[in-house]
Write a structure and sequence with these properties.
single chain; alpha/beta; 6-stranded mixed β-sheet; 3-stranded antiparallel β-sheet; 12 helices; about 30% helix
């Protein structure tokens, strides 16, 4: 009887052992799967390749199996689509368990029949990768933005500010759902007009050309003229830069000279002060005169710095104007050069003054000679006081407020900073969408000039440019625009008739410099660099300038999208039926260019392009907010 009773007892014990062991292995496998999933999700956003992630997941899984034989456990990994931002990481583990005792126990334990000799378990896990967002608002601040918008009684600028602030409010509410993610949504602001302002505080940055080595830094200057005015204060070229030579420079002798130095050296007489110049003897009385020494006073001029750099930079030479390549002194053309609008000649032409005449000529000769003559900047007389503001004189064409770097809008301080910057925008100046695009891209990049962006290789992060403009790209011939008029300075002409081009610059001064600079290291002015045969290099007209800028913009768009930047574009109140034939063509070209520039939506088979009226701008920005939401910022 004991023997008979032993059989079921041993059978029950065998079942218990198998059940306990398979339960333990199953639990260990599930724990290893969960651990591998969390670890791999963290690794995924660091930018590892798919192969690296799969190897990492497998190694992590096996290391956490504990008593489970890795030969009996298999991991399958399904990664999110590369660089799509966010997504779901899917992982499954298959466990093969072979009972310690005879296979019939498998039928008893797991209700199977037949000749099964092992049990297969499959466990699955899915982890939603949190998607972060970095957005640059690249917004037109040109003069036409002050016009009343179509379908509204408000100006385009007022509507733009309203819509932009609403966009921030919408996105920040959704970002609040991402509790465990640092800086889930960041925004930057890039106001653009004819140029882009990086901020005067950036003067000392390493990416600014502080030694004058860029091939465009001195293209409008003739430094050889310094020696003719004062042999003790020469400026000579050496190693791609220009250096002060001669005892007249004092402690600055043999140091590089740059545009920044011009801003520093220029002084003007801001007033006078009464100072003691000496003493003289005064006597009273004839027979026994009493003499005393009394001070002698005279009025002396007060010299102040004429003006300071406002923060705008010139467009880099092609191809660096169309990319976000990091500035490096080893490649001088990549450095960023401060804008400096040369003083133009006093000479008039048919009652037309030069466009930006803010300093009296101090030499004779042709208008070109007068314009590039350098000693005039080191005098103290003849400066126009009215040309000292942030967008006149040497700062001409610098009309926008500075870039606001990427800011975490989920923080109250960040949101306040962004909204304050938006509210400060003012409409003034021309239109250079390509330059705005380039700086928008740079503002969300991870390297200098701005380093707030996440690494470009980081998965689960989207970089987005929202670009809005209300006009075609514009650059102007001197006679096509009204010349600068400085009320306290004699322009010797009637600026209402437009400016003259006696110096042969072929354009007004702006971020591309002159269309035909005084000297250049290139076959043509920067405006035409990298353009196709459709843009004649010797045709100096507003229409041809627009064509050149359109091609530059298109190249920037392609380069940005090629770096996985998502571009959304908005054509505001652009009507291709208005204006003369050239203007209509320019407007249509801008509409086409903006549409081509836009990325395709991930959720609908169409471009992220909106052709909208001012009165509909708020609705357009709501649709943009929806699109940003569909980038899965809450995973």
């Amino acid at each position: 009887m004991a023997a008979i009773a032993t059989v079921p007892l041993l059978g029950g014990l065998a079942l218990a052992i198998d059940y306990t062991e398979i339960s333990r292995q199953r639990a260990n496998t599930i724990n290893a799967l969960d651990a591998a999933g969390i670890a791999t999700a963290r690794q995924a956003i660091s930018g590892s390749s798919d192969a690296e992630l799969e190897a990492y997941a497998t190694a992590y899984f096996k290391a956490n199996l504990n008593s489970v034989d890795p030969k009996n456990a298999k991991l399958t990994v399904v990664l999110p689509e590369s660089n799509s931002g966010g997504g779901t990481l899917k992982m499954s583990a298959e466990l093969k368990y072979k009972p310690y005792f005879y296979s019939g126990f498998v039928d008893i334990l797991y209700n199977t029949t037949g000749t099964d000799t092992q049990v297969n378990f499959i466990a699955r896990t899915e982890i939603a990768l949190k998607n972060t967002l970095e957005v640059a608002l690249v917004l037109d601040n040109s003069g036409s933005m002050k016009d009343t918008a179509t379908g509204s009684s408000k100006t385009r600028m007022d509507l733009l500010k309203q819509a932009s602030n609403s966009l921030l409010d919408t996105i920040v509410k959704q970002a609040g759902q991402m509790k465990q993610v640092e800086k889930p949504v960041q925004f930057s602001l890039v106001p653009f007009a004819a140029s882009v302002n990086v901020g005067p505080d950036k003067r000392s940055e390493d990416w600014m050309d502080r030694t004058g080595i860029s091939p465009i830094h001195h293209e409008n200057f003739d430094w050889s003229t310094m020696a003719a005015a004062d042999s003790t204060k020469k400026v000579e070229a050496s190693g791609g830069a220009y250096y002060r030579r001669g005892v007249g420079w004092g402690a600055k002798k043999d140091t590089p000279i740059t545009r920044f130095d011009l801003y520093d050296e220029m002084t003007y007489v801001s007033g006078t002060t009464r100072v003691q110049a000496g003493t003289t003897q005064q006597c009273t009385g004839r027979k026994n005169p009493v003499c005393v020494w009394v001070p002698v006073y005279e009025d002396r001029p007060i010299l102040d710095r004429y003006t300071s750099w406002s923060g705008c930079v010139e467009t880099r030479p092609y191809p660096y104007n169309t990319d976000d390549v990091e500035a490096s002194t080893s490649v001088p053309a990549t450095m960023f050069v401060p804008m400096f609008g040369p003083d133009e000649t006093d000479t008039i032409d048919s009652n037309r003054p030069a466009n930006n005449n803010w300093l009296s000529d101090t030499t004779s000769g042709t208008a070109a000679v007068r314009q590039k003559y350098m000693p005039k900047y080191f005098q103290t007389l003849g400066f126009s006081g009215a040309a000292r503001d942030s967008s006149s004189g040497p700062n001409v064409s610098c009309t926008t407020s500075p870039i606001t770097k990427l800011t975490d809008i989920t923080k109250s301080a960040g949101m306040s900073a962004m909204k304050s910057a938006i509210d400060k925008m003012q409409p003034l100046g021309g239109t250079n969408v390509g330059e705005g695009l380039a700086w928008g891209w740079r503002s969300i990049s991870s390297h200098t000039p701005y380093t707030e962006g996440r690494p470009d290789t980081e998965k689960g992060n989207d970089k987005v440019l929202i670009v809005l403009t209300d006009g075609a790209n514009t650059y102007y011939t001197p006679s096509s625009v009204i010349a600068q008029s400085y009320s306290d300075f004699n322009n010797n002409g009637s600026p209402n008739y437009g400016g003259n081009d006696l110096a042969g610059s072929r354009s007004i001064y702006s971020s591309f410099g002159y269309a035909s600079p005084f000297s250049t290291n290139y076959s043509s002015g920067r405006l035409f660099q990298g353009t196709s045969s459709a843009v004649p290099k010797s045709t100096y007209s507003n229409a041809n300038y627009s064509k050149a800028m359109d091609e530059q913009m298109a190249r920037t768009c392609d380069n940005a999208k090629g770096s996985n930047v998502i571009i959304m574009t908005i054509a505001l109140d652009l009507d291709p039926t208005e204006g003369n034939s050239d203007q209509r063509a320019q407007t249509q070209a801008q509409i086409d260019g903006l549409k081509n520039c836009a990325s395709f939506s991930r959720i609908r088979n169409e471009k992220l392009f909106w052709n909208t009226r001012g009165g509909d701008l708020d609705q357009t920005f709501k649709e943009i907010a929806d699109e940003l939401s569909n980038l899965r910022i809450v995973g």
